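quick q for whoever's on today - can somebody do inverse folding on this one?? i tried earlier but teh output was garbage lol. tokens:
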């Protein structure tokens, strides 16, 4: 996992006027490495709105905190002034994971219990490199994708992606779906695995790019869009691999995908995605990736007369551009979106069901008369635990422990030799 991807801040909460530098301020920071929430407490002087200075502050000492620590207090210089293990400081959200038994659309999927997965590495936020032994005792190396946060959009994206991958027909240019991952106590769906493809993604500028891979990518996009009615909506070098066994390009990461009109976003069509992807692959120019999709269009790069080549290619740049231009002309002709909406073999699946836990009422507060206010829906994990609800816990040691364990194993094997 890249260091800049490790932490996610939910912003600043002020207990008084934020203009007053003495106002007490709390910032909940999610650690994707240790999979836990840590509350960072200080004053408004240190934590101005929307600057997320709490992330680099926590990063300095996050690996040295005990797993029981729920909050840290820092002084106005950002130095650690205190820690708390009080459970009431824990604002980790409760995620009402769906029981596999009521996920009818996933019936027939192969499953694996979370305890059988061995964590080998952290590939990125919410994605691990893992291994397990299958029913025949054969070791399998997989990418394990999961969502530990109770965000409505994230829950919907996770549901859509796992169903999409389940219903996709096998394709030589799509990373194969493997299994649904279930927690061990109540067999709730906490993620899924796909085949692990070694070698890294095409955002590695040292990987040469072949003309046939552009052909495979455009054919795949046509298949997804026009045959299945699926819009990936995140075509980019970071989501493309090269299978070392077949030497074919592979697309993965379907969490932004739309099916028909559902979750379809303006300016995230796959044709535009291919144009910007090829431009970046050839030139290594990444400045357009920071532009929001709604503020960019393919003419920004198509109108550039010369794409300066900064990557090894197997053909001249002009051949890549001519093929791309011809393909874009066909796809952007009248009726292209109509063909997408009327795809002959459209994939469909049911909406995300509501987990039973979500409807368990809890006390949110009290009225002016002292009467309890009862509600259902999102809650803290500590609130769910007080109600006796089962809570799956993601916490784990930092990645550094994995690296040290691997190094120790290497030294042990060398001594044996």
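ok took a stab at it. sequence:
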């Amino acid at each position: 996992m890249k260091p800049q991807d490790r932490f996610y801040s939910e912003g600043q909460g002020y207990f008084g006027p934020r203009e007053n530098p003495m106002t007490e301020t709390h910032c909940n920071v999610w650690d994707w490495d240790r999979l836990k929430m840590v509350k960072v407490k200080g004053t408004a002087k240190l934590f101005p709105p929307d600057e997320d200075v709490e992330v680099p502050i926590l990063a300095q000492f996050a690996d040295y905190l005990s797993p029981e620590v729920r909050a840290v207090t820092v002084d106005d210089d950002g130095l650690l002034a205190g820690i708390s293990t009080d459970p009431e400081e824990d604002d980790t959200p409760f995620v009402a994971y769906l029981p596999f038994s009521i996920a009818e659309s996933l019936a027939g999927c192969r499953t694996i219990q979370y305890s059988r997965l061995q964590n080998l590495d952290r590939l990125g936020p919410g994605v691990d490199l893992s291994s397990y032994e299958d029913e025949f005792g054969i070791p399998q190396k997989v990418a394990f994708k999961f969502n530990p946060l109770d965000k409505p959009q994230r829950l919907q994206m996770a549901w859509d992606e796992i169903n999409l991958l389940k219903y996709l027909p096998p394709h030589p240019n799509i990373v194969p779906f493997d299994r649904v991952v279930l927690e061990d106590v109540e067999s709730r769906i906490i993620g899924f695995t796909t085949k692990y493809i070694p070698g890294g993604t095409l955002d590695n500028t040292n990987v040469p790019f072949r003309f046939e891979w552009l052909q495979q990518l455009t054919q795949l996009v046509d298949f997804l869009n026009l045959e299945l009615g699926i819009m990936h909506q995140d075509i980019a070098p970071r989501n493309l691999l090269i299978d070392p066994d077949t030497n074919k390009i592979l697309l993965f990461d379907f969490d932004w995908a739309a099916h028909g009109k559902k979750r379809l976003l303006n300016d995230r069509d796959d044709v535009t995605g291919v144009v910007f992807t090829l431009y970046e692959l050839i030139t290594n120019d990444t400045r357009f990736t920071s532009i929001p999709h709604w503020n960019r269009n393919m003419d920004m790069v198509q109108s550039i007369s010369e794409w300066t080549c900064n990557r090894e290619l197997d053909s001249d740049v002009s051949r890549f551009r001519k093929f791309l231009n011809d393909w874009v002309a066909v796809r952007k002709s009248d009726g292209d979106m109509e063909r997408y909406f009327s795809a002959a073999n459209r994939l469909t699946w049911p909406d995300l069901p509501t987990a039973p836990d979500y409807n368990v009422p809890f006390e949110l507060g009290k009225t002016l008369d002292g009467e309890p206010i009862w509600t259902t829906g999102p809650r803290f994990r500590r609130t769910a635990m007080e109600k006796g609800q089962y809570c799956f816990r993601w916490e784990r040691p930092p990645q550094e422990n994995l690296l040290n364990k691997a190094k120790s194993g290497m030294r042990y094997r060398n001594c044996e030799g």
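fwiw The first strand starts at residue 7 and ends at 14. also The chain has a mean pLDDT of 94. so keep that in mind when u check it
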